[in-house]
Design goal:
The chain has 11 helices and 18 strands. By secondary structure, the chain is of the alpha/beta class. The chain has 2 domains: 208 residues, Alpha-Beta Complex (Spore Coat Polysaccharide Biosynthesis Protein SpsA, Chain A), CATH 3.90.550.10; 153 residues, 2-C-methyl-D-erythritol 2,4-cyclodiphosphate synthase (60s Ribosomal Protein L30, Chain: A), CATH 3.30.1330.
């Protein structure tokens, strides 16, 4: 039998919250529910160690999970785990920070298999930065990076062994000497075995951690054909028998992209920032305006991750110009060209596009 212990007795003080951070919404749901759902498929029993003042609300959230229940935690993480261990019925226990909602089923299964094979399983990642030991603000030693790991959760053990280690730590009044279960296990049982974790399995600690990791935006723009001998798309001048009617240079592709970026960032549309009633934007270079939009997005703490664009036009033929458009937009957005997708199609001679009266462009963006 497998018991998952979720540590959820924090106060949210480090995040600057007035209440428990695992009860705050993450993409529309309390963060705790992501962790509970992840373990529901593998654990026979889920114990949520929580504060008394949060118990009623958490119990209500657990109604879809018949094998989950709350236990009252303590002042520290160590006290909370010890309380849950005494209530656990499984022969294997997996201890997890409820504030790590992105744990995957693979990580959970790898943890279980490590316990079955080695008696313990601690989720960890190889350090990518150089780590040092310091005293009084001075570096005193530099461990070899190949030997250094950062520890995550879940951490799995045989329940009786971990309970014995916790009991010993409390009997010796050393419970405050440890920050996690692997430390207590190492001190009283044996060096625990590690298995490879995942960088996405991060712990929610600060307010910005609760912002959506990605934000999508959609934009569309249309321009009519008029007099001229070329059009501009994606900053590329394309010879044609007609031009586009516009206050600026008429780059309909960039205009759709700008609206998508602004929409994803929760900002106003391009008409608000660059009104066609303002003489400053007469004949304006849309790529220059795009740079301003990218800066507005950056000020929201966001940046493009990838973009997908579609151009509907009967003529001219755009295939020879697609790569140049991609290169221009990739440079403007600080992306690699393979993160910019551009498709072009006709409208099979239907409607205003098919009748060569105008061009419509659609844009989808993903911000990180």
């Amino acid at each position: 039998m497998i018991t998952a212990i979720l540590c959820a007795a924090g106060s949210g003080s480090r995040a600057g919250f007035s209440g428990n951070k695992v009860l705050r919404e993450l993409n529309g749901l309390p963060a705790l529910l992501y962790s509970v759902s992840a373990f529901a498929a593998t654990a026979d029993e889920i114990l949520i160690a929580c504060r008394e003042e949060d118990r009623t609300r958490i119990d209500a959230l657990l109604s879809p999970f018949p094998h989950a229940r709350t236990v009252i935690g303590g002042r520290t993480r160590t006290q909370s785990v010890y309380s849950a261990l005494q209530a656990a019925q499984g022969d294997i226990v997996l201890v997890h920070d409820a504030a790590r909602p992105f744990v995957t089923r693979k990580i959970i299964w790898d943890c279980i298999e490590s316990v079955r094979a080695f008696g313990s399983g601690v989720c960890a990642l190889p350090a990518t930065d150089t780590t040092v030991l310091a005293e009084d603000g001075r570096i005193v030693s530099v461990p070899a990076r190949k030997d250094v790991f950062t520890v995550q959760t879940p951490q799995g053990f045989l329940r009786d062994e971990l309970l014995r280690a916790y009991t010993a730590a409390f009997s010796e009044e050393r419970e405050d000497d440890f920050t996690d279960d692997s430390g207590i296990y190492a001190a009283y049982i044996a060096p625990p075995h590690i298995f490879l974790g995942d960088r996405a399995n991060k712990k929610l600690t600060y307010p910005e951690d609760f912002a959506p990791a990605e934000r999508a935006g959609f934009g569309v723009d249309t321009h009519a054909f008029g007099e001229g001998d070329h059009i501009v798309l994606g900053g590329v001048r394309i010879p044609h028998t007609r031009g586009l009617v516009a206050h600026s240079d008429g780059d309909v592709l960039v205009h759709a992209l700008m609206d998508a970026l602004l929409s994803a960032a929760g900002l106003r549309d391009i008409g608000h920032y660059f009104p066609d009633t303002d003489a400053r934007f007469a004949g304006a270079d849309s790529m220059a305006l795009l740079a301003e939009v990218v800066q507005l997005v950056k000020e929201q703490g966001l940046a493009p991750k990838n973009v997908s664009l579609t151009i509907l036009v009967q003529r001219p033929r755009l295939a020879p110009h697609i790569e140049a458009m991609k290169a221009n937009l990739a440079a403007a957005l600080s992306l690699s060209p393979d993160a910019v997708g551009i498709a072009a199609g006709t409208n099979e001679h239907l409607g205003y596009v098919g009748e060569e009266k105008g061009i419509t462009c659609f844009a989808m963006v993903l911000l990180r």
